[in-house]
Amino acid sequence: MRRVSLVYAGVALLLSSCASIGDPFVLAFDVDGQYQSRAVTSAGIDAYRTDLVGAGDLSASGKVQRYFEVALRYDPSNTEAARYLALVEDYRAGRFSAAVKDADALLKKPSRSVDDEYALLLAVRRATTIYPQDESTIRLVKATAGLRTSFIAGRIAEIRATMAAVSKDAKVATREKSSIDAFRIALKINTVDPGDLEGAQLYRELKSEVATIVGHRVDGIDALVKNSEFDDARTQLLAAKELDRISGGSFTGPVQSAEYRLYLSWARYHEKRKEWPKADARVKSALAVRRGSEAIALEKRIAASVAASDRGATFNDGLKNLDTYIAKDDLVHAQRLLSSLASGPVDASKRQALELRRKKMAESMANLYAIGIKAYRDERFDDAATAFESVIAVDASYEDAAAYLDKARAKQKLLDQY
Q: Does the residue 162 lie in any domain?
């Protein structure tokens, strides 16, 4: 464990420094080259999946690329590092080609709307981020220089007009809407040209105002939760999450905390009423936000209560519930119930009945896996991921379901970005 920690610490230090790749790292850590290469590759794969493909952050491509360059410096025969290095370059090249294609198509339009102008400048900005010295990038920057200036001037005027239209005695909701609308415009300026001084100043000022609005929304969520007005609280939450989204995740911390509190309280509300499916759904929503100890404990209590309810008063009651789950292809609940029934006292006839259900579940698993494979080959990656998730929830080692799930999620994220 200490060797792994040293490697990761060294990688972080190396990638944040201006030193040439390799030499300082070699001197600082006396570990086997192949071992170190594998560790750096592992860290690079995590960054590739999370920062580049997952978040779609093109600015992270250089950092991700350096992981694999370092890995190959230590072990030139590391085929995994070489493969991912090629994947990073393919990813960048693909995004660059798409950006240039989009920009050229918009440049050819005889007339463009404000939205078209924004899309054009955004495509040029994307190309600049990836390959700033490419001849296509240089050409596009020159072709859009005047447009960029006029676009920013127009948006600044729009922001000032939006804020000036709000009187001092306007309602809070009206003032908030104006601030949010103005912030959306300022965000466009910041995205197109973060170096514009006036645009950057307006962006900072409006972001501060939106932060205050988000704080009010979070307080409102907690007040509604206290009164068990959960649907209204969720509406407030969605509004706060949208503000966080358009700000680039500036308010993720407080918004996620409010979301966790909302779904945890909602789950407890249903638990008190013994509404187990609803309680289970809400606590899973809380756990999707944060693996908090309270939510984990609640999930266990709900699972135990569901298991007791599913088992029923008699073994036959449990079998009926098991058949219902299998018929619905709800293999996760079916597996839990089958295990629960099998753990109790069973005779030969009961074992035979359970074995029959196991065979039906195995057939359902194979069918669900086949559905996932077909969806993947048809490039319906969301459908494929849903199928593989269900398979893995029952058997994490089933065929190649885990590998296909990772690939389906990655490919869907790529599609979502174009």
A: no
Q: Give the model confidence (pLDDT) of 276-321 as tens digits.
A: 889 999 999 999 999 999 999 999 999 888 777 777 778 888 888 8
- 385 belongs to a structural domain: yes
Q: Over the chain, what HEC string results? A: CHHHHHHHHHHHHHHHCCCCCCHHHHHHCCCCHHHHHHHHHHHHHHHHHHHHHHCCCHHHHHHHHHHHHHHHHHCCCCHHHHHHHHHHHHHHHHHHHHHHHHHHHHHCCCCCCHHHHHHHHHHHHHHHHHCCCCHHHHHHHHHCHHHHHHHHHHHHHHHHHHHHCCCCCCCHHHHHHHHHHHHHHHHHHHHHCCCCHHHHHHHHHHHHHHHHHHHHHHHHHHHHHHCCCHHHHHHHHHHHHHHHHHCCCCCHHHHHHHHHHHHHHHHHHHHHCCCHHHHHHHHHHHHHHCCCHHHHHHHHHHHHHHHHHHHCCCHHHHHHHHHHHHHCCCHHHHHHHHHHHHHCCCCHHHHHHHHHHHHHHHHHHHHHHHHHHHHHHCCCHHHHHHHHHHHHHHCCCCCCHHHHHHHHHHHHHHHHHC
CATH of the domain at 387: 1.25.40
Give residue 22's pLDDT.
Answer: 42
For residue 14 the two structure tokens come to 């190396």
Residues 6+ apart with CB under 8 A from 61: 52, 88, 91, 92, 130
**What pLDDT is recorded for position 417?**
56
pLDDT over threshold 50, residue 19:
no
How many domains is the chain partitioned into structurally?
A: 2
The whole-number average pLDDT for the span 1-17 is 45
| Confidence band of 4 (pLDDT split at 50, 70, 90) | very low
User: Containing domain of residue 75, as a range?
Assistant: 2-143
Does residue 25 surpass a pLDDT of 80? no
Q: Tell which of 125, 143, 161 closes a domain.
A: 143
- Per-residue pLDDT band at 34 (split at 50, 70, 90): confident
- pTM strictly above 0.85: no
